[in-house]
Every structure is written in structure tokens, then in C-alpha cells.
Design brief:
globular; 18 strands; 30% helix; disordered N terminus; 2 domains; Dipeptide-binding Protein, domain 1; Dipeptide-binding Protein, domain 3; 16 helices; alpha+beta; single chain
């Protein structure tokens, strides 16, 4: 009897040791694609960041640069040239070695207009990158990147950059498999075709439900990948996500219902997580359409909003009211407050609207405000629409759309007002302000200002950081005078996390490499 009991105990212990570690992560909506060049939302980047790996990665504890595919690099004294040595153990999931040629191929694709890459402007950091993208240079060899051999990659920058290494940790600058694209074309990023090089591979993808990621045994640092499996759940409704969390079916959520925040703030287990986040919640105004082509109208819409009332009474998180577009502290930047946070300039807003030809809203056309399906977005849109109705006498029709549909309309500029958010891709004001340059791939409102463009160009060339910040402030001033957007609040990251989940470090970029996370 004792021998049998001992045998059962040993078997049970072995089963316990061998049990795979499985994380369940909320991701809000389903991604449109897993092609790093076609992704833009956090729900997409959260996945591509874990399927692929670039030259470098970042430590989620402090965002310091760590080796990735490159195990070492050298930077010239003037900061214009970088040389990377690629580790021999970096492999694609088909067993081939990741080479410098893979990066050259990916970056050429990034800068090819027909790719329609969401972050094609990241390639403008390479010398002659913009010229190639705009067709002024045809020869890719004149662009500032080249493979010296399979293991050595040389980069020449257009301007010295204080944040370029951090930029290399963004999925848009990750390598892409030419083999997969040559074989499958635009279907290369489907789960059954995709070839990746990161810490995880796709096990399966159930549409509108879940994507299952498994540890990649070919990954060079596989011994330090803690989870065996990560189930990334697509749950567009925050109420559903919160219920699954309470049932123990999610280890961490991507969101939380607004009305549940007071409850979780009083939770003795402190499962509610709140930390600063480099992001701005705002509305795009399509400046190519009447009446939003009129600066007076855009200013009136902005001045008629009580942003503090939204953050205290609607979102209940008490985020920082957006009196600027660039979050304070981004790369040391301290923007001046130029927008009222508490709706103190309603009379001025009314005067501006009248000056634009719409006294008390008379004759003002009905506009549509598009937002992606989410209860929180709906409540904010309703509050702002009501403020515009009461303060300006104008009507706005609210239209909710699924994430993929909204993105399509955004890319086509098929909207008048559209909910959006911008999250820093690196900790520098340029990450926020460059998107408003004329012709920028992320400038969905179509706004253009020559003086603004010049300030951003000057900042890119300036090596004195104090002067850079002055140039960014000058650009911010122009932006907040022209107001092609309606900034609403500066993000505070809010989500629920089980106490058993470790390695899910709070950081201002919400940078989430799954390889660090584990269940204790």
C-alpha cells in the first residue's frame, strides 16, 4: 500500500513539474493582420512584437536597450553610422538563419509606397529614405542601409538620432521573410503561411476568439522564454473581458468597464493596475471636408469641451486633461498648456463659430463621429456630442464601427470626425509630433502647414537637446493654434492583473514582451 501511494505521489509530482505554463491575455479587438508593415494598433503590435524580433529589444522594467537579433553594435562618434553584428543562432521558424539581407529586404519593402506601410516614415531615418519613398531616388543602394555580409549590417542615418536604437525595437523595422512573401504573396502573414523569428509561433487562430502562441523552440533565447503558451483573447467588449477575469479565465485584461473602476479601486487584493502611459486620446478632424477645413470651426469644437469633466465624471480614471497633444515628460519635454482643461472658454467658442458663419449653430451641417465598438468610447462620444449640442447648438451623429472597419475608413479618410489614440513608439516628442507633417502616412486628417513641417525638420537635425525641445514647443504651438485634432486626455493605463501573474512590468510605453511573464 505504501509503495503504491509513493508511486502515485511521484507520478503526480512529475505531472505537476511537466505541466505547461499557459497565460491568458486580453487583447480587446482582433488584429487586421500580422504583417508588421500593415499593423498600427496596440492590439496588433502586442502580437507582432512577440512573433518577430528586431536588431534590438527593450527591457520592460526600465525600457533599456537589449540585444536582439544583433548581439553587438558600434555607433560612430557623430551618431550618423551604426554597425551591427548579427548572432549566428538567430533563426527563422523554417530553420534558415536570419541574415543582414533579411533586414535590407524588409526595409526596402517598408519604403516601397505600394506596400502602404503604416509606419513608412520610420524608414525616413535612413539616409535618402524619404527620397526613395517619394521616387526621387530609384536605386535602393543609395539608401542608408546595406548588408556587408550575412552577419554584418551597416546603417547610415539622415540625421543623428537620440532615439534610433529604441526605434529599432518597433515591429515596423523587424526583418521579414522574403521566402514567405515570394511563395504566398499578400497571404504570407496568414497563420498557415507565416514565417517568424521571435520567441513565439502561432499554434492556431480562431477568428474573433483567440490566437494561441506557443514557445518557439528555434528562438535563440528560448531558455529564457518563461511561458510555454500564451492565449491572446479577442474581446471587444470590456464588460465581457472583466467577467472572464473575475471567473479566473484571464490573467490580465486589456481594458476595464468604466462603471466598474470604483469597485476595483476598493478591492482589497489590489488587482486594478494604473500607471502613466505615453499616449493621447483624441479625435481626428478631417480638414479636407467642409466645415472642418475652417480653422475657426476646429477651434470652436475644441474650446467647447470640458475635458476635466470627461476624465472625472465619464471615464472615472481622472486622467490628465489634454491641454496639449504631446504628453508632459515625453523624452523630457514639458509642453505649455494651450487648451483649456475645464471648459472655461465656451463664450469664445460660440463667438468663433459665429465668425465662421454658423451663429448658435444655425446652418451647421450634421457631422458623423466614428468610434470603434467599446462602451467607454461610446460614453465619451456621447458626452462630447452633448457638450457641442448645448454649448454650440450643433448636432453630431454617433456611429460605432468594428475596429477593422474603422481602420479602413481612417486609411481612406472616409470620415468627418474619428476617434483615435496615439501611443508613443519611442520616448521622444518626435513620436507624437511627426505624424502631423504634410503627407505623413499617419496624418489621417490631411492637415498641412509649411511652418510646422519646417520646425519638425529642424528638430531632426538639431543635436542640442534644449534647442530640440524649443523647436518641438514651437511645433506644438502651431498645432494647437490650427487644431486638426481634438485632444481629450493623456492616457493613464488601466487594466486588471491577477496577483499570480509576474513579469508584467508597468512602463510608460506599455511595452509587453510575453517572454518575461510567468505565473507564480
Amino acid at each position: 500500500m505504501r509503495i503504491l501511494l509513493l508511486t502515485i505521489t511521484i507520478i503526480s509530482f512529475q505531472m505537476l513539474i511537466a505541466a505547461p505554463m499557459v497565460l491568458n491575455v486580453g487583447n480587446s479587438s482582433e488584429p487586421r493582420d500580422l504583417d508588421p508593415h500593415l499593423c498600427s494598433g496596440a492590439n496588433e503590435t502586442r502580437i507582432t512584437l512577440n512573433l518577430f524580433e528586431g536588431l534590438v529589444s527593450k527591457d520592460p522594467r526600465d525600457l533599456k536597450i537589449l540585444p536582439g537579433v544583433a548581439d553587438s553594435w558600434k555607433i560612430s562618434k557623430d551618431g550618423m553610422k551604426l554597425n551591427f553584428h548579427l548572432r549566428k543562432t538567430a533563426l527563422w521558424t523554417d530553420g534558415r538563419k536570419v541574415t543582414a539581407h533579411d533586414f535590407v529586404y524588409a526595409w526596402k519593402r517598408l519604403l516601397t509606397p505600394s506596400t502602404t506601410a503604416e509606419f513608412s516614415s520610420f524608414g525616413f531615418h535612413f539616409k535618402n529614405g524619404r527620397e526613395f519613398y517619394e521616387g526621387r531616388i530609384k536605386d535602393i543602394s543609395q539608401v542608408g542601409f546595406k548588408a556587408l555580409d550575412e552577419s554584418h549590417l551597416e546603417i547610415t542615418l539622415e540625421n543623428p538620432s537620440l532615439y534610433f536604437l529604441s526605434l529599432l525595437a518597433h515591429p515596423s523595422l523587424f526583418p521579414i521573410s522574403k521566402v514567405a512573401i515570394d511563395k504566398f504573396g499578400n497571404r504570407w502573414s496568414r497563420p498557415e503561411n507565416i514565417i517568424t523569428n521571435g520567441p513565439f509561433i502561432i499554434e492556431k487562430w480562431k477568428s474573433n476568439q483567440v490566437i494561441v502562441l506557443k514557445k518557439n523552440d528555434k528562438y535563440w533565447d528560448v531558455k529564457n522564454v518563461k511561458p510555454d503558451q500564451v492565449n491572446v483573447h479577442f474581446i471587444s467588449k470590456s464588460e465581457t473581458e472583466e467577467k472572464l477575469f473575475r471567473a479566473g479565465e484571464l490573467d490580465v485584461t486589456a481594458q476595464i468597464p468604466i462603471e466598474k473602476i470604483p469597485f476595483w479601486e476598493n478591492d482589497k487584493n489590489r488587482l486594478l493596475q494604473k500607471h502613466p502611459y505615453l499616449g493621447t486620446y483624441y479625435y481626428w478632424l478631417n480638414t479636407q471636408k467642409v466645415p472642418l477645413d475652417n480653422k475657426l470651426v476646429r477651434k470652436a469644437l475644441n474650446l467647447a469641451i470640458d475635458r476635466t469633466a470627461i476624465t472625472h465624471k465619464v471615464t472615472l480614471v481622472k486622467q490628465l486633461a489634454a491641454e496639449y497633444f504631446t504628453p508632459p515628460g515625453t523624452g523630457g519635454f514639458r509642453p505649455k498648456s494651450l487648451l483649456p482643461g475645464k471648459g472655461t472658454e465656451i463664450k469664445r467658442a460660440q463667438s468663433l463659430l459665429a465668425e465662421a458663419g454658423y451663429p448658435q449653430g444655425k446652418g451647421f451641417p450634421k457631422l458623423e463621429l466614428l468610434y470603434n465598438t467599446d462602451e467607454g468610447h461610446r460614453k465619451i462620444a456621447e458626452a462630447i456630442a452633448q457638450m457641442w449640442k448645448v454649448n454650440l447648438g450643433i448636432d453630431v451623429i454617433l456611429v460605432n464601427q468594428e475596429w477593422k472597419v474603422l481602420l479602413d475608413n481612417q486609411n481612406l479618410k472616409n470620415f468627418t470626425i474619428l476617434r483615435s489614440a496615439w501611443i508613443a513608439d519611442y520616448n521622444d516628442p518626435n513620436s507624437f509630433l511627426e505624424i502631423f507633417q504634410t503627407g505623413h502616412s499617419n496624418n489621417y486628417g490631411g492637415w498641412s502647414n509649411v511652418q510646422y513641417d519646417e520646425k519638425i525638420k529642424q528638430a531632426a537635425k538639431e543635436i542640442d537637446n534644449r534647442k530640440r525641445m524649443d523647436l518641438f514647443q514651437a511645433a506644438e504651438n502651431i498645432l494647437l493654434e490650427e487644431l486638426p485634432v481634438v485632444p481629450i486626455y493623456i492616457y493613464t493605463r488601466v487594466y486588471l492583473k491577477q496577483t499570480r501573474l509576474e513579469g508584467w512590468y508597468p512602463n510608460i510605453e506599455d511595452y509587453r514582451p510575453f517572454k518575461w511573464a510567468y505565473l507564480k
